[in-house]
Specification:
Bound molecules: nickel (II) ion, manganese (II) ion
Distance between the termini: 9 Å
Helix content: 10-25%
Largest sheet: 7 strands, mixed
Number of strands: 15
Strand content: 25-35%
């Protein structure tokens, strides 16, 4: 299985014939190493409705005839825009040809930003727990630290994708505490460096995590890592 980082919270996971794209914020993302036209995928997983997570979802979904998996209200909205969707709700999951997707709680909000502060509420924010190729990947979405992460960790995680940028999500120190709950074989930091409010050093996270006994790989935008079972 291969995990490629496209910066912010966007990852491509490839296993066998399947390609899963997470939170595809590419257009307007200063660190994105690819454009939406470069993407080939079968599924798009959206943790919540904020622009820096839904991003290019509609365009990529239509160009690839890909299925979008998202929390209920967001999925419903995207379906109304012509996307093929699977609507899930926190705690709920679905078996799919490549494995399984389950939504997990996230302490955050979910809305479309509209001018004048007239944001359009889009239900709850989520994390994404994916089983593919015998591996369990937890994409935390945008979230604060919460102790029920230990319940997610009890499922036996191979990879945890964790926000570290502070300001809108966990910062570095809380993300290290999250690792104590999640105990993944490998953690990869996300949600940093794309704007001045979330400018943190991912290598500081890696160093603090290592001190606490956790393994972290920092991926540069466009870089990938292969997981061998
Ligand atoms: Ni957000
Ligand atoms: Mn975000």
């Amino acid at each position: 299985m291969r995990i490629t980082y496209y910066s912010h919270s966007c990852f491509l996971v490839e296993a066998g014939e399947y390609r899963l794209l997470f939170d595809p914020f590419l257009t307007g993302n200063p660190l994105a190493p690819v454009t939406s036209n470069d993407i080939r995928c079968h599924y798009i997983l959206c943790s919540h409705a904020h622009d820096d997570h839904v991003g290019d979802t509609l365009q990529i979904a239509k160009a690839n005839a890909a299925t979008v998996i998202a929390p209920f209200e967001l999925a419903d909205y995207l379906a109304g825009q012509g996307a093929k969707t699977i609507d899930l709700m926190l705690g709920g999951g679905r078996d799919l040809p490549f494995g399984r997707v389950q939504l997990t709680p996230a302490f955050h909000s979910s809305s479309f930003e509209r001018s004048g502060g007239n944001n359009l509420a889009m239900g709850v924010a989520s994390g994404l727990l994916v089983t593919i190729d015998g591996e369990k990947i937890y994409h935390a979405g945008d979230t604060a630290l919460f102790s029920d992460m230990h319940l997610i960790g009890r499922k036996g995680l191979d990879v945890a994708l964790l926000p570290i940028g502070d300001h809108y999500t966990m910062g570095i120190d809380d993300a290290v505490l999250a690792l104590d709950y999640l105990c993944p074989t490998l953690a990869i930091p996300m949600h940093y460096g794309t704007n001045h409010k979330i400018e943190v050093d991912p290598h500081l996270f890696a160093a603090k995590a290592a001190e606490a006994g956790h393994r972290v790989t920092v991926l540069r935008p466009g870089e990938c890592t292969d997981l061998v079972q």
